[in-house]
Write a structure and sequence with these properties.
The structure holds two protein chains of two kinds. By secondary structure, chain A is mainly α. Chain A is built from twelve helices and two strands, in the order H-H-H-H-H-E-H-H-H-H-E-H-H-H. Chain A has one domain: Orthogonal Bundle (ABC transporter involved in vitamin B12 uptake, BtuC), CATH 1.10.3470. The radius of gyration of chain A is 19 Å and the shape is globular. Chain B is about 35% helix and about 25% strand. The longest helix of chain B is centred in the middle third of the chain and has 16 residues. Chain B is an alpha/beta fold. In chain B, helix 4 crosses helix 5 and helix 8 crosses helix 18. Classes of the chains: A mainly alpha, B alpha/beta. The interface between A and B is medium-sized, with 24 and 29 residues.
């Protein structure tokens, strides 16, 4: 059970923070703001699950924010044109899958380094979107926000959906041969190839899946407000990669779990409201999040160093 | 010609009873060696006889466990790379270790100028010195040429220039002609002779006996990590050297045979792959038979295995499985046709170190072990337990990480992975390399049992007794193709001579 150690430590840290909040700032646990907080993070959780798969295969995708923005605007425009959400969702997901597959083809097909490829697509997509939209917001018709339900019902739908994605992917990772192949490729792509696995197909698949999840997350995002911001996803890549790394997924691939990613995301998301409740200046927020990331990276470094001896 | 020396010359380098172990493996078991000034001293031995380890002791990369060396008149227990260099040892590797983006002059300066980040760089002096050194070697190279634009032999020349420039008295050349054309080779020989005339001692490693006869003054033969004799080259012939290299009894292997081979499982007809450097390979292996592939490093054995497993697909000839032509253009295709390949160098690619034993065993057999792609822990553990018992894998349990296992047990996991795919043809590439004696014996027993169970086994091994004792037939590869097929139990010198290509009568393969 040593392999699960990281997830337990994380859960313990999160538990300790929540306990501390219960003592000093019980207002943190008021249902409405807490639910709003978690709902705001639901799209990020969906993207983080996909990012975890990409990082498990020893790749990275820093273009998720741009993919998310493009899908959000596309979904917003379709919704504004009167499409039902039931049609908007698959189209946005397909649009994201195409963008993800583009990254995947460049990385797996041409063997280019993923950080360079996705840096390129990040900038290209963002600037393309700026050019096309000139920073214009998309106003959504009534009945889109919260799926036309009450706010709390809509929030519940989003939270449950995000958790379903997480559980579904976690089960697939554990119980599907494809999931095992993700770990094998991330541990040692050449060994995986010699074992009859196609590392390039696996790589293309995880990038495509991440794009698809960005599309789904975009829809989960636009239903939370009456307008779509043109750059809804800026900064999303940092938040998501941070959650994955804090959650114990090795940046060198092959090791980690989605449960850790959930804990990591919630941990990072709790920092700003916790600071507010404790009357600490908001300037500390990023500093503390940064410290947590460094701590996680250090823990990973210590683990690897120990392993070598 | 060896000059008869009336009074003993002070040797440049002496190894006295040098021994070195890596874990349970004895790489060197007492080597005596002496290098005199102005001689070319050849070092000869089979793959794994200890040549590379001995070189690493001389360059200070490895410290010996026992024995001592004498260098520059000083008695030393061990060297480190800096001392070795300071005492005039230089090594020219097959693959030159130069900086490709820097020029010849800059590369030489990096080796020859004192360290220190703040010293002033005199570019003119660098170029002048580089030009001088290159001229001394008779090398037609511009000091301003970038290394990446140079051919392999030209890069070797830069290495040699660096060695001379550093005032090396002892130059070690490890298979320097492996990638040279005839002309380039002659130029290199001329340079070696120049070095000898200047009183430098050259340790020359090569598998090519004709080079040793053409160039060397004396030869020391290593066998199983020990020196078995030093002779003046003029006193030896090829047969004598081969006898020295392989002359040992085959220990502990039961004689082959006992099973009647079945149908032809795999047949190659003129198979080759230009990119992999193998061509026109023809042989057939039957169910229940162990076909050995012997040959020197670089003879094309691993390359052939990679062709058969679809890693570098064949672009020449035919491959037949049970009489039907098949295309093996990917590992998936090879697996679908019942082939399995346990690669060389299991540490890197034979097993996935981060995954537990059970997951490693089922990795190639997901479709067989798990119906509909759903992984189930009970099914996985059942399969893992079966192979752990069958191959006698010693692990804390199926959940233990493979990284925690010994080399022999990791190798068994790699073999188990492929047995789990229920193959018809099993290719084993150096399966006992770097495992201890006990595990080696077990692996031999397992390989024999697998063949008796009806599997066609292709065994690539540089361990001659293993090949000779275990295989029903022995294919000998040289220069990227199969030269001869010898019966199992053939005397080691005959196999060695075929691998070296010293006997001219080449049987039809």
């Amino acid at each position: 059970m040593k392999r699960r150690g990281r997830e337990f430590v994380l859960a313990a840290v999160l538990g300790a923070i929540l306990l501390a909040m219960a003592g000093w700032a019980p207002a943190f646990f008021e249902p409405a703001p807490l639910r709003s907080l978690l709902t705001r993070e639901a799209p990020a959780l969906v993207v983080a699950c996909g990012m975890a798969l990409v990082i498990l295969t020893r790749q990275i995708d820093i273009s998720v924010g741009s993919q998310f923005s493009v899908c959000s605007v596309a979904a917003g425009l379709l919704a504004a044109a009167g499409w039902p959400l039931g049609l908007v969702l698959p189209v946005a997901a397909g649009c994201g899958a195409l963008l993800g597959a583009l990254n995947g083809i460049l990385v797996a097909g041409l063997g280019l380094p993923s950080i360079v490829v996705t840096l390129g697509t990040m900038v290209a997509l963002r600037q393309g979107l700026n050019l096309a939209r000139q920073g214009e917001f998309v106003n959504l018709p009534d009945g889109v926000q919260w799926f036309g339900l009450s706010q709390s019902a809509g929030q519940a739908v989003l939270l449950v959906s995000a958790l379903l994605v997480l559980v579904g992917l976690a089960l697939a990772l554990r119980y599907l041969a494809a999931g095992r192949q993700v770990y094998a490729v991330g541990s040692d792509a050449e060994a995986a190839r010699l074992a009859g696995i196609r590392p390039r197909v696996v790589t293309l698949a995880v990038f495509t899946l991440l794009g698809l999840l960005c599309g789904i997350a975009a829809v989960m995002n636009i239903v939370q407000s009456p307008q779509v911001q043109p750059l809804a996803g800026s900064g999303l890549e940092l938040k998501v990669i941070a959650a994955v790394v804090v959650g114990g997924v090795a940046i060198s691939g092959g090791r980690g779990s989605l449960w850790g990613v959930l804990t990591g995301l919630v941990l990072l998301a709790c920092i700003p409201p916790a600071l507010t409740h404790l009357h600490i200046e908001a300037y500390w927020e990023k500093a503390i999040q940064g410290a947590i990331i460094l701590l996680a990276a250090t823990a990973e470094g210590v683990r690897r160093r120990k392993e070598r001896h | 010609m060896v000059n008869p020396t009336p009074q003993p010359v002070q040797p440049l380098l002496v190894f006295a009873n040098i021994a070195k172990n890596f874990g349970a493996v004895q790489a060197l078991r007492g080597v005596d060696f002496e290098l005199r000034p102005g001689e070319v001293h050849a070092l000869l031995g089979e793959n794994g006889a200890g040549k590379s380890t001995l070189i690493k002791v001389a360059t200070g990369a490895h410290a010996p466990d026992s024995g001592h060396l004498v260098l520059g008149g000083r008695r030393l227990d061990a060297l480190n790379p800096a001392t070795a260099r300071a005492l005039g040892v230089a090594c020219i590797y097959q693959q030159p270790a130069l900086f490709p983006d820097l020029t010849v002059a800059e590369n030489l300066a990096l080796r020859l100028e004192p360290a220190g980040a703040w010293r002033r760089v005199d570019r003119r002096a660098r170029r002048v010195r580089a030009a001088e050194l290159l001229q001394r070697l008779g090398a037609d190279l511009a000091p301003d040429a970038e290394i990446r634009d140079l051919s392999m032999p030209e890069q070797q020349l830069v290495e040699i220039a660096a060695a001379i420039g550093a005032g090396a008295r002892i130059v070690i050349m490890d298979e320097p002609t492996a990638s040279l054309t005839q002309r380039e080779q002659e130029r290199l020989f001329a340079i070696v002779r120049t070095l000898r005339a200047e009183g430098v001692g050259v340790i020359y490693i090569s598998h090519r006996l004709e080079e040793i006869f053409a160039l060397a003054d004396r030869v020391t033969v290593l066998r199983d990590g020990a020196s078995v004799g030093t002779h003046a080259v003029g006193d030896m012939d090829a047969a004598g050297l081969i006898r020295l290299m392989v002359g040992r009894e085959l220990a502990g292997l039961p004689p082959p045979g006992g099973t009647v081979p079945g149908e032809i499982a795999l047949e190659l007809r003129g198979t080759g792959c230009a990119a992999a450097g193998v061509g026109s390979v023809t042989f057939a292996v039957r169910a229940g038979e162990i076909l050995g592939l012997a040959g020197l490093v670089g003879a094309g054995r691993t390359e052939l295995a990679r062709v058969l497993f679809g890693l570098t697909p064949a672009d020449e000839g035919e491959i037949l499985r049970e009489g039907r032509p098949v295309r093996l253009d990917s590992p998936q295709a090879a697996m679908a046709h019942g082939l399995a390949y346990v690669p060389e160098d299991r540490r890197r690619h034979g097993v996935v170190m981060e995954l537990p034993v059970a997951q490693n065993i089922t990795l190639a057999a997901h479709r067989r072990v798990f119906r509909h792609g759903w992984l189930s822990a009970p099914a996985e553990n059942r399969v893992a337990a079966e192979f752990i018992a069958r191959l006698g894998i010693k692990a804390a349990g199926p959940e233990a990480a493979v990284a925690t296992l010994s080399g022999g047990n990791q190798q068994k996991v790699a073999v188990a992975r492929w047995l789990a795919t229920a193959p018809r043809v099993l290719i084993l590439d150096e399966p006992t390399q770097g495992v201890d004696i006990a595990a080696k014996g077990e692996l031999h027993r397992i390989i024999r049992e697998l063949a008796q169970g009806g599997l066609a086994v292709i065994l690539i091994s540089s361990d001659l007794p293993e090949i000779i004792g275990l295989c029903d037939r022995i294919g000998v590869m040289r220069g990227g193709t199969l030269r001869e097929i010898l019966p199992g139990g053939t005397a080691a010198p005959v196999v060695m001579a075929a691998a070296l290509g010293t006997n001219e009568k080449e049987g039809a393969a």
